[in-house]
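To fix ideas, we give here one paired sequence and structure record:
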Amino acid sequence: MTECLQLRPKGQESLVQNRFSHGHTCFVARYEGRLIAVAWATPHRIYVSPYAPLVVPLPGKSIYVYEPFTEPGFRGLSIQVALCAHMMRSFVDKGFQRAVTGVVPENEQSRRV
């Protein structure tokens, strides 16, 4: 849990703990031992925010990938692409068949991936 907090604003310990207690997984990427990127995944329902107060159930054998973050100095290097590939291998090994994610319109960098 401590690692997943390193790239988050202060005071979000309870949010991260709640995610872990509900079966969410935090994947991390490192460069020379330094944490440079994270992304979350869950096989549970999706809460769509900040655009809609909506909860969407996932179809069976699906995961929802959310809140990817890469340190600014490492952006544009496809680190999230590599992290996502690692996530997919991990979840396929557990029997999952599809991944769902969303990108907010103003996140131009992610829309290009």
